[in-house]
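Need residues for this backbone.
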C-alpha cells in the first residue's frame, strides 16, 4: 500500500499457499479458481462434515445481493463500506449498488493478498472516485474508518457490510467492540448488514465442520447463536424480518426461500 493506505498498482503481495485461507476456501466452495491445494483440502474436510456448506455459501451470496439491492433501491443508500470483501464472485457489492445508482461509492476492505490482487485490477477499470480498496485488518476499525473517509462522506448515510466475516473474529478480538466502533461512526439513516455462521442451526454437523476448519486454516472460526448475532445490532433498529437464516431475509422467490443455510443475518438502521 502507499502511505495513505491505498492499494498500490506495483509489486506482488506475498501469498502463503501452505495453509488454507478463508477467502480462498470460500472461493473453492463457490466453484472459483483462486484456490490452492491447502484451501481445497480444508474445504473438502468441512464438506465431509457438513455437505450443505456450498449451498449455504451460495445462499449467503444471494443474501448479500438482496441486501445491497434493498439498501440502494429502497433505503436510498449510495455509499457502502464492504469489509471482508472476498474474492470476486457473482453480484459483487459495487455491481449491485451501481446497477441501481450508477454513481454509488463502494470501499472494499480485506486483508487477504489474493483479494488485494483482484482489487488492483478492479481499481483500474472503476469510474474514478467511486471505488476504493483498503488492505487492512477488521480488528483495527479506526484505521479502516480513516482510510474509508477518502472516498465516503460519513456525514451522510453509509451502509457497512460485514458479510460472512464476523465468524472469523474470535471473542479475544472483542467482536462487539469492533462492530460498535464502526457503527458509532455512522450518520443517522446509515445501515449495518451482517451475516455469520450459526452455532445453533444443524448444530452437531456444523460444530464438527468448525473443528475441522480450525485445525487446517489460518483463521479460527467462532460460530454464534441467533441471540449472539442479534447483539451485533444493539443500539440499531433491525428492519423486518430481523435476524433470520440468510435465505429467509426478504427472499425474492420461493426457490430462494427454500434454500438451506447455516448462516444468520440481519440488516439494521442507525
Ligand atoms: C468467507 S469470506 C466472505 C466474502 C464475502 N463477504 C462474501 O460473503 O461472499 C471472508 C472474507 O473476510 C476476510 N477476512 C477475514 N478476517 C478478516 C480480518 N480480520 N480483516 C479483514 N478481512 C478479513 C477474508 O480474507 C475473506 O476474504
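Answer:
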Amino acid at each position: 500500500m502507499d502511505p495513505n493506505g491505498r492499494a498500490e498498482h506495483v509489486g506482488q503481495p506475498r501469498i502463503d499457499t501452505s495453509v488454507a485461507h478463508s477467502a480462498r476456501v470460500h472461493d473453492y466452495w463457490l466453484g472459483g479458481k483462486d484456490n490452492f491445494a491447502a484451501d481445497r483440502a480444508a474445504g473438502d474436510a468441512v464438506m465431509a462434515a457438513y455437505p450443505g456448506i456450498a449451498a449455504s455459501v451460495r445462499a449467503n451470496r444471494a443474501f448479500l445481493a438482496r441486501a445491497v439491492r434493498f439498501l440502494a433501491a429502497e433505503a436510498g443508500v449510495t455509499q457502502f463500506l464492504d469489509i471482508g470483501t472476498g474474492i470476486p464472485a457473482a453480484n459483487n457489492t459495487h455491481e449491485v449498488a451501481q446497477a441501481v445508482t450508477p454513481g454509488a461509492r463502494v470501499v472494499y476492505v480485506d486483508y487477504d493478498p489474493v483479494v488485494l490482487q483482484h482489487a488492483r485490477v478492479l481499481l483500474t477499470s472503476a469510474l474514478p472516485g467511486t471505488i476504493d480498496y483498503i488492505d487492512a485488518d477488521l480488528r483495527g476499525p479506526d484505521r479502516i474508518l480513516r482510510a474509508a473517509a477518502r472516498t465516503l462522506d460519513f456525514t451522510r448515510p453509509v451502509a457497512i457490510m460485514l458479510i460472512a466475516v464476523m465468524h472469523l473474529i474470535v471473542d479475544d478480538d472483542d467482536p462487539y467492540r469492533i462492530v460498535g466502533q464502526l457503527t458509532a461512526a455512522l450518520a443517522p439513516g446509515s445501515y449495518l448488514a451482517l451475516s455469520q455462521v450459526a452455532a445453533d442451526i444443524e448444530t452437531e454437523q456444523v460444530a464438527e465442520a468448525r473443528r475441522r476448519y480450525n485445525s487446517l486454516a489460518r483463521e479460527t472460526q467462532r460460530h454464534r447463536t441467533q441471540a449472539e448475532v442479534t447483539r451485533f445490532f444493539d443500539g440499531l433498529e433491525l428492519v423486518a424480518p430481523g435476524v433470520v437464516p440468510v435465505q429467509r431475509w426478504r427472499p425474492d422467490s420461493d426457490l430462494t426461500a427454500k434454500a438451506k443455510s447455516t448462516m444468520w443475518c440481519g440488516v439494521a438502521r442507525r
